[in-house]
Amino acid sequence: MAEVTFGPKGTTLIQVGNTFYLAYDNGASILYWELSKGVDLSTITNINPSFVNQFDSQGKLIAGKDIEGYMYINQDDWDLQIVEGDRLVKAGNILEIVDDSTNIIEATVSTLANLDERLPWANNQDFLDLVVELRSEDSTNWKTNIETDTRFYDIINELGYTKEMYDNKKISLLDELGFSKLKEEYAKQLKNSVTNILGKLDDNSINYAASKWALGEWSRTTAIEQVTKAVDNNFDVEWDMGFKAVVDGGTVTAATGGQANIQNLMDIWLPKAMHANVDVLYEASKVRQSSFYQNELIEKFKDMRFQGGYSMYDRDFSWKNIVQPILNKAESIWGVVIDETDDVVQDLIQINDASKVDAILRETGLQRGYQKTQNDATMAMMQAFGQGIVPVQDYQTRIGVGK
């Protein structure tokens, strides 16, 4: 029985209507090449040289039964691009049969078989199809052309790879010096990223993350997220377990960046008694992760205060504006600096009546013996009764002290 001699062993002949194709099963799909119209089939098989293309009443090649692998497929089935359950992939055209053209099929099959297995997309079917298509269009420049084809980046994006990761992967495989410089630069960037949030990570852990980034195994985002996770356990990303093992064996100083900001927000919106209910480390981490979270946190603080016994004040009125006028007034009347934990200040906050503040503060100042309050009271009495000196006992009786 005759067989196809054009292409590697196993190449078959397919007839669809009046069109002929050469096909080769590479395991993942069936690659096919369209032959020129009116091709002399004796030039691609070892059938008798005197063979002439002849067809039966149904249009099938009469000698097809004598050619191993020959098959006739009707047009409707061919249009489905499936033959016996296998995908058909067009690999180009063979428009002229010449002595040195038989490598068209062999070279394409070899290209697919020898794709670098270290590339994560090497066995992706969409990628293989694209390689076949671009190689059939330009067998010399297809590697360059694939990098300008947006479909290639759609494919690797689906696999979780960015263009930067692809570029880094190429450098790591082909340029040892370039890879070394890239890793060094990435290590500096990651170290700065940790330092900027007031954390510290040992060089071994930094270099591990920089290598992953430079190898194209991590994206920029992943690398920064992982080193941030190392110094901020509240950072909301999953650990890379290989990196975690390295970090666990190293030295870590937890990040403290942003804690002063959280403390300031608590001072503005919350009574000091509620500060202990706030996880400053956690909230600082959340704000570092998203600038939008700060507004959420402020709203959270407003609710905490309003629901925590201070509903007599407008929810949007800051705690600082509630307590500071009372503290200022107390310092003015008492002549001493106090904070909001003072019992009388707390009472005045609860009373929430500006008309009573001065009287209560003066009475308390006299009871506590604050010098300024006593002096002010004496001066007021002198002004009220003239310049005569009022006996102390009479003075205390009049102002209600010592009864």
3D structure, described in words:
By secondary structure, this protein is of the alpha/beta class. The protein folds into 5 domains: 1-102, no CATH class; 115-161, no CATH class; 174-253, no CATH class; 259-317, no CATH class; 322-399, no CATH class. 52% of the residues lie in helices and 9% in strands. Strands 4-1-2-3-6-5 form a 6-stranded mixed beta sheet. A two-stranded antiparallel ribbon has the order 7-8. Helix 6 (163-174) crosses helix 7, helix 7 packs across helix 8 (203-214) and helix 11 (259-269) crosses helix 13 (280-289).
Write a compact overview of the structure shown.
With 403 residues, the protein is an alpha/beta fold.
> Number of DSSP strands?
8
Please give the domain count: 5
Order of helices and strands: EEEEHEEHHHHHHEHHHEHHHHHHHHH
Strand content: 5-15%
Sheet with most strands: strand arrangement: 4-1-2-3-6-5
In whole angstroms, how far apart are the ends? 132 Å
Count of helical regions: 19
Shape: rod-shaped
Largest sheet: 6 strands, mixed
* Oligomer class: single chain
> Spans with pLDDT under 50 lasting ≥5 residues?
none
Helix content, binned percent: 40-55%
Structural class: alpha/beta
Q: Roughly how many Å is the radius of gyration?
A: 42 Å
Residue-averaged pLDDT: 88
Topology of this protein?
Elements: E1 12-16, E2 19-25, E3 30-35, E4 71-72, H1 75-79, E5 82-83, E6 86-94, H2 103-113, H3 125-137, H4 142-146, H5 150-158, H6 163-174, H7 176-196, E7 200-201, H8 203-214, H9 220-231, H10 241-248, E8 252-253, H11 259-269, H12 272-275, H13 280-289, H14 293-307, H15 319-334, H16 343-351, H17 354-368, H18 371-385, H19 392-399
Parallel strand pairs: 1-4, 3-6
Antiparallel strand pairs: 1-2, 2-3, 5-6, 7-8
Helix pairs in contact: 6-7, 7-8, 7-9, 8-9, 11-13, 15-17
